[in-house]
Amino acid sequence: MSTEQTVRESLNQALHEELDRDESVFLYGEDVGDYGGLYKISEGLKDKFGEQRVFDTPLAETSLGGTAVGAALAGARPVVEIMYADFLPIASDHLINYAAKMYFNYGDETSVPLVVRAMYGTGDGHGLHHGQSPEAWFMNIPGLKIVMPSTSRDYKGLLKSAIRDDDPVIFLENKMKYDSRGPVPDDEYTVPLCESDIKRTGSDATIVAIGGMVNTAIEAAENLSEKGLECEVVDPRTVSPLDMDPILESVKKTNVLVVAQEAPTFGGFGSEVASQVIDDAFFYLDAPVKRVGAPFTPIPFAENLEEMYVQTASDIEDAVLDAINT
Amino acid sequence: MWYVDMDLEAEDKRELLGNLFLVRQFEEHTIEVYQDRGIRELPHSSLGQEAVGVGACFPTQEDDILVPSLRTRAVMLLRAPLNQIVAGMYGTESGPSNGRTTEHHMGSSGNGILGTTGMVGSHLNPSAGAALGSKVLGDDRVTISFLGDGATQRGEFHTALNFATVKQLPVVYVIENNQRTEAKYIDDLVEVDDLAEFANHGLPTEIVDGQDVTKMVDAVGNAVERARSGDGPTVIEAKTYRYRPHAETMPETRDRDELEYWKDRDPVKLYKERLLDEDVIDEDWVEKTTEHLQTEIEDAFKFAENDSLPPEDALFHVYKDADIDHWTGVVR
């Protein structure tokens, strides 16, 4: 049995269940407590679990990142909200140099079981600094896990797994999708980290899409289906460490690969997927790998420029057709 | 005051002096070996400021969390096994993390040492976080975090103090003001007379003579007691001095008078003379204790020099909860 839920509701439920399950889990950040989170993800949690476990903090992301590392090293399981992912660079000394490296650094099995929740996603006129897709900033850091869910079911199940995971997890939420709905199982469940998922099957082309682009890729696949092309949509869900096997299997079947992300194409997630496929499945490819992503510019403010920046289903359709017609 | 010099038993006093000897002799031997035949980890000596760490560690409980600066050698020496520490300096397999990391930044939950990084002051928010963790978990551990004067210039210091104060966390920050940030005088880098002024974030601060080990015991003992009782954080500024340059590769830039001025108030000599005056120790005790420590220290260096390099698979210790091929970065 399942119930239709928004991403917002599924995240709230995940936090609720994990706070309830494990007393070492706690949640904090700017306006996370009394206000319930800027986008109301943590609404009602402070009332339920009290000031000790759900609370507001000073405006200092360096404290949020740093204290989460310390609390995790001391044996707690902090879930910290950094609000906009654009603010992650302020906390990133703690994520890159501390959280990612302490399991390597410690002389015992101590690790850093923290979750940093941050939101990204553009198309809402928020401009340069409130919507960047930051996965590639952190992909080159061994020790971090980066999770970018796409459905209500995955958001809930992956957040629960992230909280239970012993490694530091950057959990990226697409703020444009908080209101999107989808079925969520009524019974308790988790979705494992580091497992790619096939969101749509097809034999003509493989589209690997992450985060907010997964739904866009599915939309593109439906449109192409009307033209007689069946695309397989693979959703890695965990961007790093990446589960490549389902992607390789899909490419070996379809012989065509398109990758789609919100971030600029250059130096991005899709480039890594393309490289991995070239390493391990080069002779299965019938066409050049096509990458769909933002231009190499900041996110612009003006409406028409923002429309240029944000890639849509038709951009993905063009990329698939380009590849197939090469 | 909760802890005063008068309360120290003769046995405590001998322990404190023994610990001062340990750090002093360890640091001197390290420089000797480094100059003679090299050590993989570049020494950043704590000579001259031994009393700060030794005194601060004394009133802590075994399960309290200590967060050393890269120069708080006392914390490592008083908390971790000697062989492991020296192997850590050599990057050999018996080091705290199979040679993956340096002795300077090693972490060990078993020994109550919070790991640190190569970024000066980056441990100050994690120190508040460790205290936050203790508060959430409901244990009564206190975190004692050491920092140099340089770290007070970073935003980390101010954000950490504000956070710790607002949340009333059980943490004590001990500033080891050794007068120099790397090679530069602290007076040229900040416009406050005392760094304690810099810590004016609504929490108690105290300035202590860092060359007097008993003053450190008193100040940190009181602060730890306050923290454990739920009364929040404290900042202690210990005025001290290092005898060596920032790192052993850097040339000496200080004049002899300045060094001599501080060596007059050498923390090891001061306390040794006091205990001799008080008849708590005699010259025979001093000789036996220093000889015994010297043997232990030299044995630890011999152990490390003969220790094997780590096995290659020691490198692949990056994720606790994921099985990956470390050469490609992808899940196996």
Explain what you see.
- The complex is a heterodimer of chains A (326) and B (332).
- Chain A has 326 residues and is α/β, with parallel strands linked by helices.
- Chain A has twelve helices and 14 strands.
- Chain A folds into two domains: 2-185, Thiamin diphosphate (ThDP)-binding fold, Pyr/PP domains (Rossmann fold, 3-Layer(aba) Sandwich), CATH 3.40.50.970; 197-324, Rossmann fold, CATH 3.40.50.
- In chain A, 38% of the residues lie in helices and 22% in strands.
- Chain A has a seven-stranded mixed β-sheet with strand order 3-2-4-5-7-6-12, sandwiched between helices. Chain A has a five-stranded mixed β-sheet with strand order 9-11-10-13-14, sandwiched between helices.
- The longest helix of chain A has 15 residues, at 7-21.
- In chain A, 59% of the residues are buried.
- By secondary structure, chain B is of the alpha/beta class.
- The mean pLDDT of chain B is 95.
- In chain B, helix 2 packs across helix 3, helix 4 packs across helix 11 (283-306) and helix 5 (124-137) packs parallel to helix 6.
- Chain B is globular and about 65 Å long.
- In chain B, strands 1-2-3-7-6 form a five-stranded parallel β-sheet, with helices on both faces.
- In chain B, 51% of the residues are buried.
- The interface between A and B is large, with 56 and 55 residues.
